[in-house]
Amino acid sequence: MVQPSPPRTEPERSVPHPGERPDTLLRVSHASIGYRVNGAFTRAVADVSFDVAAGETIMLIGPSGCGKSTLLKTIAGFLDLADGTITVAGRRTLAPGPDRAVVFQEFDQLFPWRDVLDNVAYPLRRNGRTKAEAEQQARRYLEMMGLSRALDRHPHQLSGGMKQRVAIARAFALEPVMLLMDEPFGALDALTRARLQAELNAIAKRTGVTILFVTHSIEEAIVLGDRVVVLTDPPSVVREVVTITEEAKVVGSEQYRSVRTHLGSLLHRDGKEADEDVAEFTD
Ligand SMILES: Nc1ncnc2c1ncn2[C@@H]1O[C@H](COP(=O)(O)OP(=O)(O)OP(=O)(O)O)[C@@H](O)[C@H]1O
To answer: Which fold has domain 23-99+179-283?
Structure first.
């Protein structure tokens, strides 16, 4: 007899957290995550808890190797938790699912043999849309990312910034509950990066999607985030969650400088080697 396949997610018992917000979408609760190397288990993330409300953009920042990508991949369902729970809309994230779309830093995350339109439309067809529906949806999001004139190009004919725009359009087109972004602008030049940050802000506002964004850059964290979750050195815990006001987003303003200094001091507290951007900031 054919056994039914196990559910991709499992309902989580509703246990109220202290300070719980009614609109919580992502809950990371006492997450502990590690890797087994040559038979020995090493913890990267020790005990991390934070909540993300629906529609928020949360930035994850911390020293190199503190487990930011590890945490994001676990929320995406690519890695298992050693301890704790992660839920999205009350369901445990035990496997990847269409409710969580991921954008990585690498430019090679596109299908090289498909053109731009098909790179975005193909996953929609896989999710049950007809070809016409998928292409219509793909065109809509590619237009939002300023790519209407590049629909028939293949990835090798695109710049790094254009490839990341396609990857972002593809993620948004899936209309996920959450967008997980792992340093998507990390390999871009400063100008392209600033442009894409502005485009991401605009499309995020327009769609109301919830975003968890890993970055090395304090400036990026302030410009894009509603709140910034600062992790410690590994095995990591949450050092502080910093709220970013609208005033603080004005680069060069007093509030901007004050938040930047505060985030810099949080990242330097262990006195160990800091990330490039942070080191740059102290010089
Ligand atoms: N596949 C793996 N096998 C074993 N150890 C790993 C693996 N991936 C990551 N690690 C280790 O886990 C720790 C956390 O890595 P992770 O990439 O999550 O950190 P990060 O904060 O994203 O780093 P960075 O800021 O440098 O990108 C590091 O010590 C890393 O060496």
So the answer is: Rossmann fold (3.40.50)
